[in-house]
Amino acid sequence: MAKEFDILIFGATGFTGRLVTRYMQEQYGASNVRWAIAGRNESKLNALKTELSLGDDISCLIADSSDPEALRKAISKARVVLTTVGPYARYGSEVVAACAALGVHYCDLTGEVHWMRKMIDSHEETARQSGACIVHTCGFDSIPSDLGTYFVQKLMRETHGVPAKHVKYRASEFKGGFSGGTLDSMMAMMEQAARDPSIMMTIADPYGLNPKGSPRGLDGPDRLTPEYDNDFRSWIAPFVMASINTRVVRRSNALMGFPYGRDFRYDEATLMRDGPLGFLGAAATGLGMRGMNGLSSQATLRGLMQRFLPKPGEGPSEETIETGHYTIELIGKHPSDSDKHIRARVRGDKDPGYGSTSKMLSECAVALAQGEAVVEGGFWTPASALGDALLNRLPENAGVTFEQD
Ligand SMILES: NC(=O)c1ccc[n+]([C@@H]2O[C@H](COP(=O)([O-])OP(=O)(O)OC[C@H]3O[C@@H](n4cnc5c(N)ncnc54)[C@H](OP(=O)(O)O)[C@@H]3O)[C@@H](O)[C@H]2O)c1
User: Fold this and answer.
1) 113-130 vs 197-204: helix axis angle to the nearest 10?
2) Is residue 302 pLDDT above 80, yes or no?
């Protein structure tokens, strides 16, 4: 059936939703892709239209995520729902359920592993039957990781005819900020995990997102302490997003039928420097992360922190977004010959979590709307659904590049 819109941007009035809307306006206007904005508050949507000078051809749809009927009515008009309504575990479940039931493709920015697990287990069969292609983690978590690994493995296969047995992701430059929505999502996850130990088990499981019954690999728990990495001749520290990204990369391997191998290993870290200063930096980063986790797991301290941190709707300044950037260094290790290791870089302009994320998410939605997914209905990862499409689109449109060193 013909749809009124290619893409529905749900949560357009939020911090990230506004950036997505601005990107869609600048990159696609209203002629190439038919898109509309949606949210729960009509006057905020109208104010956004005025602020971004969106023309009358951009429609506003009203739906609260707690109103399944209004949601279904809005979602049924679109080919793809792009949603930034989070925390997703609090506001996102009905959106996924409606997309899966109505055969509408879906992409989001969640990093809430336990919620993704729940959505996969609850709606996979429905999405398969309806043809809805559901893709979580389409922002800084986890596109540079998932697509970076896909890129390295592709190079390794094309150059040496085998997959890399181990890919290492090292965040080497990272400048940006956090929004209230992201902090709210992180705090909400800690709060739920404190109440329900099974949630903590899912979050801590290195294969927590793999398809049920698929074989596990060789990876263990996430890194918590400083280590010396001989491949990069540097000290490394824990990386803040590793507990999300690593699960997504491992799920991609399983969903694609293990092209990286059944004994494939993947890990992430922050690259420090060589020498004693590198060790001290790695130790301080690890302590800082453990401190934050400890503080946010205590209800009272969580409440106190939230009083001083950005609130939902707030985020980094325009200047921080524009001047932000990131570089990820990757090494794919050849199974038997160290001269054949592949080194690569993923670089992004603008700050990772918002400027770059809003462009990556938009490009995922456009790729889904234009039929570029290589899979049928179901729950997929960015690499398994849109690997080659994103390797073309992101450098061309979104300032994210993938290069061999
Ligand atoms: N993975 C990544 O790289 C990445 C990067 C950025 C953000 N994120 C995630 O994206 C999400 C959004 O972040 P943000 O900073 O943009 O948050 P935000 O500014 O708080 O925006 C949240 C949006 O959700 C809407 N909303 C809240 N409750 C709703 C409901 N019941 N029905 C309909 N809409 C509702 C809000 O509408 P109102 O405007 O009416 O309040 C707003 O538009 C968070 O979960 C965050 O963790 C992830």
Assistant:
1) 80
2) no
Cα separation, 138 vs 225, in Å, equals 28
For the chain, list the domains and their CATH numbers. 5-140+355-404 (3.40.50.720), 143-351 (3.30.360)
Query: Which atom, in ligand 1's list, is nearest to the CA of 85?
Result: 24
Extract the tokens encoding 291.
């401190």
Q: What is the pLDDT of residues 325-357, one digit of tens each?
A: 999 999 999 999 999 999 999 999 999 999 999
Entry pTM: 0.96
Q: Residues 217-243: what's their mean pLDDT?
A: 93
Residue 113: which pLDDT band, with cuts at 50, 70 and 90?
very high
- For residue 119, give the nearest of 293, 378, 364 by alpha carbon: 378
Ligand 1 centroid distance, CA of 37 (Å): 14
Ligand 1 atom with minimal separation from the 183 CA:
47
At 287 the pLDDT is 84
C-beta of residue 177 within 8 angstroms of C-beta of residue 357: no
What are the tens digits of pLDDT across the range 50-72? 999 998 889 999 999 999 999 99
Query: For residue 262, which phi and psi values (nearest 5 degrees)?
Result: -80, -20
Residues with CB under 6 A from ligand 1: 11, 13-17, 39-41, 44, 64-66, 84-88, 91, 109, 111, 139-141, 179-182, 185, 312-313, 315, 353-354, 357
Q: CA–CA separation, 388 vs 151, rounded Å? A: 9
| Spatial separation of the C-alpha atoms in residues 219 and 156, rounded to whole Å | 21
Amino acid sitting at position 64: D
Q: Which residue has the tokens 């491992």?
A: 250
